[in-house]
Specification:
Layout lengths: L22 E6 L3 H11 L5 E4 L13 E3 H9 L3 H7 L1 E3 L1 E6 L2 E7 L11 E3 L2 H13 L4 E4 L3 E7 L4 E7 L2 E12 L6 H6 L4 E16 L7 E5 L8 E7 L3 E8 L5 H4 L2 H14 L6 E15 L4 E2 L2 E3 L5 E2 L7 H20 L6 H28 L4 H16 L43 E2 L7 E2 H5 L3 E8 H11 L5 E7 L11 H6 L6 E5 L5 E6 L5 H11 L6
Parallel strand pairs: 1-2, 1-11, 2-8, 5-13, 11-18, 22-23
Antiparallel strand pairs: 3-7, 4-7, 5-6, 9-10, 10-11, 12-15, 12-16, 13-14, 14-15, 16-19, 17-18, 20-21, 22-24, 24-25
Helix pairs in contact: 1-4, 1-8, 2-3, 2-8, 8-9
């Protein structure tokens, strides 16, 4: 059954009186990024009010591919299990030129990995999972049909004006997180704009209900006999829903292309060419144009911008929602640390700059995918078709057809990342910590991230006593949990075994200090003085040592 969203009633609420204590955080937008921010903050004890102009989650599949790293983010806010239950994992894909396969790829995936590299789930279902969790969270207040119309701020608070069915309302908060999408009202209120590249090619995206035995993998056809000159993508979703994307000609009228009879004609020709005669129904369709654009800064005073309100990336390589969930993960722990008095507000500038650099990383990869998938000029199309033609005869060139699927971004250049200790192998400071299967001494198999939790953590190739000692010293600056790999466990310090140290590339006595968002902050040696690291943490987190 195709997903139909439930529509929510407006429930009136009072404005914040002038001079009253401001709310802790207001989030603009109840899409997946806004809900993830709200859940991440609430799980850390922060009260959140979410303003949403609409009255339901979205309709249509939209972003369907979630990366391994995004599933880690969702675990940290308590909904990963439900996402795993309702999604389809996949690791492989195929690309064809005309009727011949030119590429079969497999994303990196090993026996020790907790999750598949990618899962498919409709964005409407994804939003509903997040919404159900938010509705059950007492620290989150959801305000439907409340459209942001203005934002002002001073040194102490943000004032958010909203239009509601009961008239205008005004909320005052310590901080605002703008997650209100590509047409952000908060962005408009600040008169700031996304800058970058908009690509020429347009795609029709459609959901169909179709009972097919084709596998769960990414399928792409360039110039197929079914629809000469077009590029067609096919993805399986749960419940026999299939996503079909196809490029339209540059001189084709978009309004004509999206007419139901024309969408049906393209899909019919392709499915019949695939050899199926099974009936199918068109459930939803839309039109898409690729952009790689971002704000110059993701922080404006006391306002953080996240997701499409901050940046746009092309769908090719599925970096859009995945990068938005990364934004939510990073912002939630940093903003909660500020609200809870654990860090100075300067950390917000640091993480905002990190996320803009992450957009740059994504955009660089996405541009290569986009120019291949949707060549907007005759020159790009001729080049793309030449590569595909050559790949038929020279398999060594098939890597040029690589779709460059999304992977987690890094923070290696961030001021927060401590890079004093070089690493022989394993994750570098700033890299995401891989989530590996581990079996703690005396325990059952679990994931490394599930075991360490959503806090700062120290993973040491040392005994539990040594790991606990180092974590205790660091806890003078930030709360740190400890995990060891050698000897016997101690209270509150699980022991993972030597194999975990080897998989992380840790030599005896080495340790990783990991941020709440799973990025490695530092690589140290447990037997060496911690002065350089603690001075770094003091400078970056605590405004000269003042907690």
């Amino acid at each position: 059954m195709y997903f139909e969203p439930h529509h929510h009633d407006f429930v009136d609420f009072a404005s914040t009186a002038p001079g009253a204590d401001p709310e802790q955080v207001v989030v603009a937008g109840a899409g997946p990024v806004g809900l993830a921010v709200a859940l991440g903050l609430a799980r850390r004890g922060v009260a959140v009010t979410v303003l949403e102009a609409g009255d339901s989650v979205c309709h249509g599949s939209r972003a369907i591919c979630l990366s391994r790293h995004s599933m880690e983010v969702l675990d940290r806010i308590g909904v990963g299990g439900e996402f795993a239950r309702l999604s389809l994992p996949w690791t492989t894909g195929r690309s064809h030129y005309r009727d011949t396969e030119v590429l079969a790829f497999a994303m990196p995936h090993g026996e020790a990995d907790v999750r598949a590299p990618m899962v498919n789930i409709s964005q409407s279902v994804a939003e509903q999972i997040l919404l159900d969790a938010a509705l059950a969270e007492p620290r989150i207040k959801l305000r439907w049909k409340s459209r942001v119309t203005g934002v002002t701020q001073d040194e102490g608070q943000v004032t958010v004006e909203a239009e509601t069915p009961a008239g205008p309302r005004v909320l005052r908060a310590r901080h605002l997180v703008a997650c209100d999408g590509a047409h952000s009202a908060v962005r408009k209120a600040f008169d700031v704009h996304l800058e970058g590249t908009s690509y020429e090619g347009r795609y029709v995206i459609a959901d169909i209900h179709w009972e097919s035995e084709l596998p769960t993998e990414r399928q792409a056809w360039f110039n197929p006999p079914s629809n000469p000159g077009q590029t067609i993508l096919l993805h399986r979703q749960p419940d026999d829903i299939w996503r079909i994307d196809y490029q339209i000609d540059t001189d084709e009228d978009p309004e004509e292309a999206i007419r139901e009879e024309n969408v049906r004609a393209v899909i019919t020709r392709h499915l019949e060419w695939l050899g199926t005669r099974k009936p199918w129904t068109l459930e939803w369709s839309s039109l898409y144009r690729a952009h790689a654009r971002a704000l110059g800064s993701f922080l404006h005073g006391r306002v953080l911008f996240a997701g499409d309100a901050a940046h746009l990336v092309p769908i090719f390589g599925v970096r859009g929602l995945n990068s938005g969930l990364e934004d939510a993960d990073v912002y939630a722990w940093a903003l909660a640390a500020v609200v809870n008095g654990e860090a100075d507000e300067r950390i917000l500038r640091t993480v905002a700059d990190e996320r803009r650099d992450a957009w740059r990383q994504n955009a660089e990869q996405a541009e290569k995918s986009t120019l291949f998938m949707t060549p907007g000029t005759d020159g790009y199309r001729l080049t793309r078709d030449a590569v595909l033609q050559l790949a038929l005869a020279r398999p060594v060139l098939t890597h040029l057809v690589n779709p460059r699927q999304s992977s987690a971004t890094h923070s290696r250049t961030s001021p927060l990342t401590h890079t004093a200790a070089p690493a022989a192998s394993g994750p570098l400071p700033g890299d995401p910590l891989p989530d590996l299967k581990v079996i703690p001494v005396g325990g059952e198999e679990t994931g490394l991230h599930a075991l360490r939790g959503a806090t700062f953590s120290l993973i040491a190739a040392a005994t539990a006593a040594d790991a606990a000692r180092v974590a205790s010293e660091l806890s003078a600056f930030l709360p740190v949990t400890a995990l060891a790999t050698e000897g016997e466990p101690a209270p509150g310090v699980p022991v993972l075994g030597h194999e975990a140290a080897a998989r992380l590339g840790l030599a005896d006595g080495e340790a990783l200090l990991v941020r709440p968002d799973g990025l490695v902050l530092a690589r140290i040696r447990t037997g060496e003085p911690l002065g350089p690291l603690t001075r770094h943490l003091t400078d970056q987190l605590t405004a000269g040592g003042a907690r």
